[in-house]
Amino acid sequence: MTSYPGPRDLPPGSPDAPGTPGVSGASGSGRGALNLALLRDRNDAAVLRAVRSAAENGTSRVELANRTGLTAQAISKITARLLAEGLLTEAGRERVAGQTGKPRTLLRLVPQARVALGAELGRHELRLIQVDLTGAVTAQTRTPIDPDGEPGPVLDRLAAQVRELTARHGADRVLGLGLACPGPLDTRDGILHQVTGMPRWHGLPLRDAVQARTDLPVLVEKNTTAAVLSRLGPENRAFVYLGDGVGAGLVLGGRVQRGARTNAGEFGHQCLDPAGPRCACGARGCLEAICLAALRAGRTAEAATALALGVTNLVRLLDVEEITLGGPTLLADPTPYETAIRTELATRLPDPAWQPVTLTRATPLAIPQGAAALALGRLFD
Q1: What is the distance of C-alpha 365 from the center of its chain?
Q2: Higher pLDDT, 196 or 30
Q3: Of 197, 249, 256, 354, which has the fewest CB atoms closer than 10 Å, so is most exposed?
């Protein structure tokens, strides 16, 4: 099941993020009403999360009270509201061992009640998916991109695809659009900063430009950060991407890491060789430059060794316990990279038996699924 980000994992400045002005610490009659509405929304979200994580056949109101810590009266009111809104449905009855009286009514999520969209804006391709409330992909599109072209036509095409996918849904049934793209990116204001390989996108207010075209709530995120949030995993993990660039997404101590300027994870721009090839960022010897130069020359083993060194540096620096490997280039031929990474970890970690690292493979849709999870988080978190 997809792991949906909680409020602490939403982009700073989004309506549901902690510390949003006008929500945290509000006072006064207007603010008090807002806080009551916010509390109701959070209690609704807690119930929806509990239902979503329950067994496939559903869960009872008694179990929901136990899972959420809410009173039976609160659960009764919340579930009545969610049933009326079509988010929940009654899914039969069950009798618990030792129970007397009527069997308990089971409640289950209605997957089609709402949809969310997730887009991956890459240097050479735009992918858009639609997911239901369980995170299952129900539709998708792919469009090639000219990285040297103007952003306007690309965003116009994205908006047209959004309209095509959501045409049969009412506006109130579309939770929003999560948009993942390469960094550097400031997720607080939704502005791109000198994305390598996309010169005309520098300084673009991406979030505002897409919101204006789609009339949907838009949450922007770095592609690798979205990917690391796309699935359940240990509290200290990383997603490593190799495609038209190299990057990483990080979760440490159970919290997504964005850094002081929300630009953490520029993994591809660690320097491996100061005398190495010139990188598109302007520096020399970046991991990304070495990998891409080797791949252009057909030297996959060299690219794999460079990536393995970068991953080992990451593990030694942050002590992560899981690395998920993704990106189109890596997934097209994963064996050389996985072999090289395992070799370097075994060689360079001082005590690999004490510091084991699990390698997993991402799905090709990890990035847009992580982006869609941000939009789903508006309902579940």
Answers
A1: 11
A2: 196
A3: 354
